[in-house]
Amino acid sequence: MRDSGGGLEHKLADLEPLSSVRKSYRISWYRCPVEHQKLRELMRPSDWQGWFQAGGHMGLAVITGSAVIYFSLQGMWVAMLMGIFAHGTVCSFFKGIAAHELGHGTVFKTKSLNRIFLRLYSLLGWHNFHEYAMSHTYHHRYTLHTKGDREVVLPQFSKSAPLYILQLFTFNFVGGLFAPGCIPTIKGTIETALGGYGTSVLSSEWSRALYTAHPEERPIAVRWARWMLLFHGSVLVVTVATQIWALPLVLTFQNFTANFLKHLVGFPMHCGLRSNVSDFRKCVRTILLDPLSEFLYWRMNWHLEHHMYAGVPCYNLKKLHLLLKDDMPEPRTLFGAWKEMKEVWERQKIDPDYEFDTPVPSAEGEVGRQDSELHASIGDLAPNALQSP
Description:
Blueprint: H1 18-24, H2 36-42, H3 47-73, H4 77-91, H5 94-104, H6 111-124, H7 129-141, H8 162-169, H9 182-193, H10 204-213, H11 218-242, H12 247-251, H13 260-266, H14 280-283, E1 287-288, H15 291-296, H16 303-308, H17 317-324, E2 332-333, H18 334-350, H19 373-376
Parallel strand pairs: 1-2
Helix pairs in contact: 3-4, 5-6, 9-11
């Protein structure tokens, strides 16, 4: 497999400014037909289910984090290392996964709970949700159309160097796709806080394009970067004052520990699929996961359903799949998805333009091409400047 480094940025140069794209570029997406009333019911968020998902995930982190601190204070070093591994596995999903769904504003019926948990997960996960909200709005509207979506640019390749694989199971210093590294994340946050274009999630070219089109969002993202640095700096101060040396491992560096599961389940979302098509079934994968992985991944394994109807809360995506399954491709297993991606990577060594064309049922005519406000909803994700197409 080839490396997934910054070699893709040359594709983003000299593209049409986003201000022009928003005015002139429209995609008539094919969406599998579903009854409006059933869709409305599925789009209705629930505080109870929101607490189960958001509160449950945070509760697991509190349990594993408390175990790390307890074992460290008792000098139980083997148990502490096991606790760190479990804590990192749980918390690696904070950045870009938990904060992603909360950013859509669809988790809780009570909007203030969405906002509180979004900030909590973002703070602990080194996630600048203001910048991400801009980027992800374009990603949903123009999925894998490079003219308007440069959050995900194909082709994507997984790093396969033994040292990187080792980092996925221990501490991730350098980072990669779906596994943010400590060095680029903290460096990017500092650069953003100082008014630069540092980022560990988006390419610098994409970040510049977003801020050029939406300069009013830049001061907000800069302030949030400063808040993150203040918080994590305070953790270090409290650590020195209390001499509880495990605190940074629990509250600051947990996001960079044991990234292997997030890497495994996150990579198949779009990798190797078709770009520049107007059918989500061709450019997004749904995969089947065990219950714990699905919970930690915030049900984003139902990723095709999420893109097709992004206003549906994560906990209703499986129900949505059951309504649409006759018009959808068969979900891949996790093993099957990685096997498919590996075959694509092998083909791309010979033909760099090759993309896997997912077999799908025949489209049911124009009935699927419904771009009403209900169908095209992405929840509360878009910043004010992007709320109108």
